Amino acid sequence: MENIVECRNLTHYYGDKMVYEDLNFNIKKGSILGLLGKNGTGKTTTINILNGYLTPRSGECIILGENSKNLSPYVKSQIGYLIENHVQYAFMNIYQIEKFYSGFYPNWKRDAYYDLMAKLKVTPKQKISTMSCGQRSQVALGLILAQDPQLLVLDDFTMGLDPGYRRLFIDYLRNYAKAEGKTVFTTSHIIQDMERLIDECIVFDYNKVLVYMPVQEFMTTFKQFDFEVTNPNVEFDKGGLVENYEKMDNSIELFSYSTEEEVKSYLASQGIEYSNFKQVPMTLEDAFIGLTGKY
Amino acid sequence: MWKSMFYKEWIKVRLASILSLAVGTVAILGIYLNVRHTFIITNAHEFWDGIINQRHIYFKLFKYIPLGIGILIGLSQFLPEVKDKRIKLTLHLPLNEEKAGLKMVAFGLTCLLTLYSILSALLILPGRYYFPYEVVALSANTIIPWFSAGLAAYFITGLITIEPLWKYKVFYTLLGFAFINLFYQSDLAGAYQYAWLPFLGIISLVSISILFSIYRFRKGEM
């Protein structure tokens, strides 16, 4: 399948602080890739590199066949970009902002924008700066839908949205992307609801990529096992079978890609006495926290 | 695309433009009320002697108004762009980034030249009622550096506002202050008669300096 985005060996530092080294990922045409990570792990840095606002120390991103450092006006017209916090020209109103953007895009879909705006309880003359965060998110989304780009790049679009607007945004976006064959690259540090949206995920931790695989594969292979240990001072070595673990007194939550039998064998081989062993079903958010830790 | 770009810029600066025009007009009205008052009620002879023989400027009240307008238009145009890093939206438009920046500057320049033309006409033309041609011509020569300072202030305000790093902002501010100060060195009418052309040359170079800030923003200096 054709790749809309190809990022090769991306390395970036802020001064001496490494963000990541040799990051590689592709986004297939028609797929929705979620870049998940805690604050400060490099999500917005990646978006900035992708949009040409930041030159990586080394490596490159190819978007629709062009290096992101020098995107042509045509390729930029094929990228719908939603900035963190749904930033738009807040000094304009709904009517003015549509009039402004429509002049730049020959295939502008005015109806797509106004259909979405009709659902908001705002007047056409109301300035965007006076709208709620949820309403602003819909304006930003409506503008992207009207632009009708091939690739949608959404930077932490869930930020500031209440559960209703978050769900509305995600459902509207997924239906649109799947119906129109659009490719979506989104970042988020709020994992709730992302399960409903993304096909593939990359999970960032500080300086490294923990996961890069289809969400379904991640959710079936990554598991949580809960049990109680006799010795509360027990410690586990991370990196082998144990991806991560959380301990509270005698209770252990252990996260692993291994099967239940493999984990039990591992515990036995380490001489760890345990009881009440069970595999616990996880949401994507549980899996994310399990993988990256609570701190 | 020019039309759309100008539309956005107009929304940003329209209030500042109207305010500038209003303040400039009120100041000019004040200047001519004062001239009329001097001619009719106080010492017309002394006033006339000051203008003809000592090259006094009868419209000194207007001196810093073009400068203020340049800064105000610059701020109203570029501050909304840097708030929440909205410049990213502008640079993401399907345009060459440099062209996008220059179109913004072209609009600001057009707006300023329009305001300055109106205010110049309001300031100079009524002078013909009170003064001979030579005095009016000298007045026109006198206000050129003030308007030039306004243009320079506009470009430098854009450069400083778009600049992503504070240390550069401070440096440009000091540099800009020193440069603009050159336009206000003399209080004699027509003092810059032979100097404003080189100044305009420097200003036209400053006019594209915003591209440097945009380039640095795109390199990731945020």
TrEMBL record, chain A:
Pfam families: ABC_tran (PF00005). Coiled coil: none annotated. Keywords: ATP-binding, Nucleotide-binding. SUPFAM superfamilies: P-loop containing nucleoside triphosphate hydrolases. It comes from the Bacteria. GO terms for molecular function: ATP binding; ATP hydrolysis activity. Residues 5-231 form the ABC transporter domain. InterPro entries: AAA+_ATPase, ABC_transporter-like_ATP-bd, P-loop_NTPase. CDD domains: ABC_DR_subfamily_A. PANTHER family: ABC TRANSPORTER ATP-BINDING PROTEIN YTRB, SKFA PEPTIDE EXPORT ATP-BINDING PROTEIN SKFE. This is ABC transporter ATP-binding protein.
